[in-house]
């Protein structure tokens, strides 16, 4: 059986923050408001990404997808202080009506690790609920368990975390080691070091596209000098965390981390090799490539830092890792929907990113898919949910060899898990 895996999927955001199921395509508001009321709400469109669960079990089946890396995210507490006051007030007023759990599930700096474990618990409860309805979903907590589930033909979820703030802030080395050990036991396969705000482990670069940043964020956020942020390396806590992840077998995801922070991780990995230890595979789980992005945004755009540079592509290939191509046209090509007359198609941009990685490395062995579905993603019109992966397979099959298609859709990441998880 072929292995098809979305290596960065935010189904847990919908299950944890909004308490939605993973079996049915339930709109996020339908369980809290009757249809008659929803029809009166002009802003409500059940087909809009934010209101839908994009990665349900039926959609996985329709897309021929075996596995999702279920990426958990407890929003950083800095969000409330950096979002414009009018929107913060709106969220606080509407959340108790639509999403009663939401405000309690934003990061608490004293209990965020417990919130993280609670997010795992909630997803695992949703899986049990789906299985009672015949879904055959499995949480794989180790690589052998994953292999067994693939052979059995099950649909598989694998835990991951976006942002090292989930461990807690200001931890000692012993506390970092114990937190990593606990996460490993719960089945976490990778941790994205940074996300939207400085977490004390890695400096982030701009991760919000300009329309979101300018429309929703305060001046204190918008005025940050991202060129300065890009030069910030890993602090001591970040280096301790990376070395613990290497030692205990949790993969390091470099998405959102500053370019200098990424270089620090490459150096730490190479230092292992110099000590006679094997390199650990590294990933960027949901990005575009810088060379394609700057075609439309220019080589000096501060937004380019989120994308994989030539240096990143080559270092990740050196480690035996993968780059997960995101399904988001802004990060793929620097394009917004406003630059398209009628549609916002993504397939050409997705394929160009894959082709560019191959041009730099000479192989497709370091390409994967990291859709970012069910996260803060403006999905392309032609690839709107996980069922569209079957369309991607057909498209790739026209241009690539069968083995190359299988490698991109899952086998490359399976290799990364075999070598880096555990």
Give your account of this protein's structure.
This protein has 422 residues and is an alpha/beta fold. Helix content is 46%, strand content 10%. The strands form 2 sheets. Strands 1, 2, 3, 4, 5 and 6 form a 6-stranded parallel sheet that branches. Helix 8 links the parallel strand 4 (155-162) and strand 5 (188-192). Helix 13 packs parallel to helix 15. The protein starts with a strand and ends with a helix.
Tally of contiguous helical segments: 19
Q: What is the N-to-C order of secondary-structure elements (H for helix, E for strand)?
A: EHHHEHHHEHEHEHHHHEHEHHEHHEHH
Distance between the termini: 23 Å
**Average pLDDT over all residues:** 90
Overall structural class, as computed from helix and strand content, comes to alpha/beta
Unreliable stretches (pLDDT < 50, length at least 5) are: 26-34, 36-46
Envelope shape: globular
What share of the residues lie within helices?
A: 40-55%
For the biggest sheet, the summary is: 6 strands, parallel
Question: What would the keywords be for this entry?
Answer:
422 residues; six-stranded parallel β-sheet; three-stranded parallel β-sheet; 19 helices
Condensed summary:
The chain is α/β, with parallel strands linked by helices and 422 residues long. It is built from 19 helices and nine strands. Helix content is 46%, strand content 10%.
Layout of secondary structure:
Layout: E1 5-9, H1 11-17, H2 35-38, H3 57-63, E2 67-72, H4 78-82, H5 85-98, H6 112-132, E3 137-139, H7 143-152, E4 155-162, H8 173-186, E5 188-192, H9 210-216, H10 219-222, H11 226-230, H12 236-248, E6 251-253, H13 259-274, E7 283-287, H14 290-297, H15 310-319, E8 322-325, H16 329-333, H17 347-361, E9 367-369, H18 389-399, H19 402-420
Parallel strand pairs: 1-2, 2-4, 3-4, 4-5, 5-6, 7-8, 8-9
